[in-house]
Specification:
Order of helices and strands of chain C: HHHHHHHH
Largest interface: A-B, 50 and 58 residues
Chains: A mainly alpha (487), B alpha/beta (1045), C mainly alpha (172)
Helix content of chain B: 10-25%
Oligomer: heterotrimer
Structural class of chain C: mainly alpha
Number of helices of chain C: 8
Structural class of chain B: alpha/beta
Helix content of chain C: 40-55%
Number of strands of chain C: 0
Distance between the termini of chain B: 68 Å
Number of strands of chain B: 37
Shape of chain C: elongated
Shape of chain B: globular
Largest sheet of chain B: 7 strands, mixed
Amino acid sequence: MATVTRPAPSRDEPRRPNIATAGVQLPAVRDYEQVDREISGTLRPTLFWFIGLGVAVFFLIIGISAWMYQIYSGLGVAGYNPPVMWGVYIITFVFWIGIGHAGTLISAILYLFRAGFRTTIYRCAEAMTVFAVMTAALFPILHLGRPWKFFWLIPYPNWRYIWPQFKSPLVWDVFAILTYFTISSTFLFIGLIPDIAVLRDREKISPIRKTVYTMLSLGWRNTDNEWRHFARAYLFLAAFSTPLVLSVHSVVSFDFAMALTPGWHTTIFPPYFVAGAIFSGMGMVFTIIIPLRKWFGLKHYVTINHLDAAAKLALFTSLLVGCAYMNEWFVAWFSGNEAEKSFFANRIWGQWWWASAILYTCNMMLPLSLFVQKLRRSAAWLFIISFTINIGMWFERFVIVVPSLSHEFEPWQWTSYRPTWVDYAILAGSFGWFSMWFMLFIKQLPVIAIAEVKEIVPPRLRTTHPHGIDPAGRHFEFEPDTPGEFA
Amino acid sequence: MSTEQDRTASSGAVAPNGVKRREFLKVLGVGTAATTMLGCTQEKVEKLIPYLVSPDQTVPGVSNYYATTCRECSAGCGVIAETRDGRTIKLEGNPEHPVNRGALCARGQAALQGLYNPDRYRGPMARKNGQLQPVTWDEALQIFAQKLGETRSRGGGGNAVFINQHESGSFPGFLDAWLAAFGMPPHLSYDAGADHAVIAANRQTYGVAWPRLDFRAARLVVSIGADFLDSWGAMVPQQLDFAEARADHENAPRLIYVGPRRSLTGLNADQWIDCKPGSEMAIVQLLGGQSSAQAASQATGVSETVLDAFAREFASTTPSIVIAGGGGADGLEVALAANALNSRGNVGTTIKPNEGYLGFDRMASPAELRALVTRMNTGGVSLLMVRGANPAFTLPKGVGFAEAIAKVPFKVSFSSYPDETSELADLILPDHHSLEQWGDAEPIRGTLSLQQPAMDPVFDTRATSDVLIAVAKKDSANAARYPAADYRSWLISRFPGGAAALTAALPRGFVSGSLAEPTTARPLPPVHATAPIEQSSGNMYLVVYPHPFIGDGRGANKPWLQEIPDPVTKICWQTVAEMNPATAERMGLANGDLVTVRTAAGSLTLPVLRYPGIQRDTVAIGTGRGHTHAGRYAKAGLNPLEILPAGEDRAGGIAFVSTKANVTKAGGYAHIVTTEGSARQHGRGIGQAIAIADLRAGRPGYDSGNANASEVAQAAGVEPAAGERHEGGGGPQHGEEMPGDASHAFLPGMRSPVANDAEGEQGSPRSNDKGMYDPKHWSGMAKRRWAMTVDLARCTGCAACVSACYAENNIPTVGADWQVGKVLPDRTGFGANLLRSREMAWIRIERYYEGPGGEDGTANFDTRFVPMMCQHCGNAPCEPVCPVYATYHSPDGLNVQVYNRCVGTRYCSNNCPYKVRYFNWFGYGEPARPQYAFPEPLNWQLNPDVTVRGKGVMEKCSFCIQRIREAENRATLEKRPLKPDEFTTACAASCPSRAIVFGDAADENWTVTQLAKDARAYHVFEELNTYTAVVYLKKVTHPTPAGRT
Amino acid sequence: MPGFICIAVLATMLSAYSGASSSEGNSPVQPVKFRHTIHVDTLKMNCLYCHFAANKSFDPGLPAMSTCMGCHTVIQGTTPDNKAEIQKLAAFWNKKEPVPWIRIHKLPEYVHFPHMRHINAGVTCQTCHGQIQTMKQVYQASSLNMGWCVNCHIGQSNPPFRARYDCGSCHY
């Protein structure tokens, strides 16, 4: 049998460049031990954290009480103004679903594309996804006239002999959201296993945590075998959730595209919504990761290079959304459809001109600044931009939902819309709910994937670490393969 | 089957406190449930004579129908009261009745809310140490008899006064006889809403109070402020005749409306001459040839060319009808002059005195009441008795009736409801509602319209007639005169043919015959004629007009009448100052800006409504709202009579248009409570019209109400006479086929290609197995397609259909201030929910302005009234989007809404192009809640066949599915198929224009099928492929004089 | 996976719930122990004699007191406890009060059940109300659930009846 030989790299010849890890190396990190120490160090609860959690819970309670009040006295306490039958709740629902997309994009798609810069931010994004979906999933129920009957949307064998209307996009929503939640939470958990194992094995942690970690780590022993299976499982899940990123928000967009309401009834909605979703997701990632890397002193993990790369992605999606907007105008004009035209005129010059203005500024104009590298590499600016993006994306959904419904075919039924305190309280509550979960997460589990980070620790520091021996018996440095494969 | 004991048993259940009965009726109210107690209510009902069902067939859960007479106005329409399990739940017009021929107006429909009004007096009350306190009837009668005795003993009988709400029939005579017996003068038969000037003029000219107007014979109708479609005279029969006349397009009369404000009649006119208030005389003289167009133009502010054309048209067109509305300071003169114009061959052909309405005879004028006030002030009145009428509210405050009453030693009120007058009374002997008592009326000569109780009294009230008899019996001097036990037996005693004849006549509701009282006019006291309007000071003319529904204020405490938008202004629950948009612009007033309207008599601050149908120098305010003591709903709005100077025309009627007013911006803002979104169609082709010329020529003559056309016209500086636009189909000149054009083939019988598909599992269009939706399916369910046609050439926008729908389908009213007043409160707090456009009316009347005019304030604009209800699309957008099948397509072509399946995603409404789905934002049907729309005993009226919708579910027009099922059940029980036009929906039944026709479009024998084939037929938003079941027939406009086409 | 398990569990719970919401078997004690056994089984009285509207109305109709007393002014009962019950009835009668029967078969108000259609279609009372004639104390024999109704309407019953089964036939 032929023996496998590989040429021994000579010391002087330049190391072959590693595309994936180029520019994402972590020079400030000396060795793996440091990684374990620093990252698991972030798990120590601080007063500041408790305050943050308290605030989150406070808002959550406001939201819950508002909802209780609404259930008791009826949806009328919200600002609905027929025919504007959908309002803040659906807007916020789409908003959160959108947020939920960046996570899977970063952790799955970029993983498949071997984009190294994802390594340090994907865990945050992934968690954000799960919690965003958990938040979004509340709203379809929350906006029902009879929330206690929500389960009628779920097909289950019943004694009435009736099923849901499978033609209704709302039923598709139920499936889409449940699927997405299942997959992304599984994906998050799988990725966590090795890290949890690390935490489990550290000294001086409370027995409770020890037990919990032990259970969660599913007896991970760090063997090659486990790593191999783990890598495959991870790869499989990544491949599995990639189409979901596209499908879920497409389905959500069908809620609108399937209706014949002017401003909704367009074929561009699915791609447009997906792009918008990723865009908003990137925004939220920045909003979360930038303060985090500061407070947790992880700047040498989440380097400015990573942010830079992510910013490029945001910029790209922003351009996509921009195209979608312009396309909408064009089609409206080109269609010659009376209702369509007058609706778009109304969208821009009508009573909600300001909403549209905010939307176009935040989503099209401001992100253009990311063409400038200086701004792209300034964490502060990115943080500001991320905020405007979040606001802009909320208003995008507002502009889609409210003006369309208030300016439909029947001029006699043209109306206005004004949310009430209940709407706002529940909106605030949703943020409370989301941040509560996130707060709990960052102090129980590592916000940066310990295992994966280790792959982009610069090789020169690895001499003390496992290396290969060629048939000639000479040692050669182990050149880390593309990250993620844990070779 | 009922024994004597039964009846006593039943009356036991209807014990005076009424508690037990109300208890279980409440249970009944919300469903077909609770058969347990039915035994009790039947018996009383059984003693009456049902219309269709013979007494011994009275069955729980099956309605009995009682023919009686509507007393909501003086016209005397015949109604049929549907009574279920002892409660009257619906009124329909009596199809055989010569006056209203089956139609019934909004006010008539709302009579039920008078019957079940939550603020009605529960029983007699007497004032003890300053407070009105409940007493027993025995006490009350004792007090009354005693007072009568005192009055007579003091010889004050002559000074006693009885004011009765004007009504025709036997009662006035009975009352006068009774008064005479007690040595009292005849009563004052008072109707604040009546047009005294016109009545007086008619008497002089035609010798009758109110001739019949035969519009069919006329070629031209000139209405000088005569709102014969709103409230002027016998509204329902006039509207029937008018609609009939207009439906015959070829010979239809052209309607020209002269007046400062376009009322509903004005909006239905083909041309509007917007003369200044008080200058009507000039027009009449012009028509009479006594003055020149130029002179008239100066007086009226109307362009000379228009007037000249008008005069020439009038001269050249015969026969015609000229009617004047009165109401001005010179109302009598104008009316007389107008009548004089009819001398050229109209009388007898178009104006038929001998077929006139008698409901307006022997009416006491406001002048008499003013005279009475002076007497009261001088202590000249010893005893005042008031029944029904409410002079303390309906007379201008300046008359000072309320103050004068205080000077009368003893006041008795027979009113059923608290009102401004009864509040001041010392003794209240609440009368039965007209649906609870016996009576009769003679609306037209030779026809006796009978009135019988349709149900047990709701409260512990007594018919005034019976009270009078009872009192007379107590009185030694008079006991002999009244042998009859009660008013009913008194009626029988003088009824031709006696009891037997009456019994035989009751099912039909009327008999030919006459009890004619002398129809002489009452002597007129000296009137305080008001000076011509020009002599008063102010920057604008003040026009006070009676509200079409609430009228002089009688309807104010009926939530339906408050909530159903005024057919002209579309205002609910609110009083506004209507101003011409141009004027408002000039004064910098936007909709809702508060203005102060100040006259010599006082000032009123209220929001502005820009209404294009108003002459530029005029501000108009409607009466009827702004009560202080008339119940919980009547508080809404303001009362313009507070600022109307006390003055009369020479016929003694209130001069409603008699003064100028100073209109100044008050600062501040109140939301306008309206259901109107945009008053323009924006070329959507919702209410379409075709000019008669095009119709005759068979041209498509499409007019989608394309705003552009008119803008072009204005830009070119030409102001097309109302209708040149229409000629040749003004809309798109480039001849593109617009949606809904009738040239498009329409197959009403067919369900849409995807209607099966809308059914779900077996519904694949390609599938051979269409399941139960296969026309050949054994269940035979797919044979029908319920459909409806709405003829816009007939529809006048009177909104009778809306009220009928409210009554039939348990639709909640949502506008009262305690029903979520916190959301966007209006100045009065009323209508908060409507500000959020949360009205629940399953059918609404959309009122669109067309062509020039409208916003720019020029006189000529056309109006389209479009009744809009669920279109029951064969290919309904709402159906596939409902996640739980709460709305779906039934095999007989209905778009069904299943309330109990609805989870309230409201997606269906989002996807409905017609926006006819309504959501229950609150628990309008839950008694415990402030939003409860049917406070006891309003809930007695709820239709047991229709589910009362709960919180958080969607609802919409069901094509009266309960009536469809009822008809199907009836047919099945009688083992026969449905007969064509066997039944119809509530809206169609009540329509006084016969504009709505309902039926099975899959069956050639139904009228609707024929109508749907009309050349004018179109679907709204046909381009959306919704395959609607509602077919509209284009309005036919008569833009040019009949001669010229 | 956890998601799918949740759904499965939820589904089972809900389907169980949707079936459980029925008052089947409910059998309250009536103020007067009216014996269907005697009237129907022994005396062979026709149901329509008392429930006079069942074949012409939505409501089956509950007999007026007079109907009861029509016979029971003369019939005083044989056994002591029958006598007792009849005297209760008489007592109500003399107080001029209707007997406050307790309702057993109740459909929600959003369901419109036309008795006459069923009776005239040959559906026996027993089909829905069970063997009333043998019930010492009446109880709700059927679940009255929607599925239970639909079963007949789609022809699954024995003997098979056939009727329209779209929602709008009963819900409006």
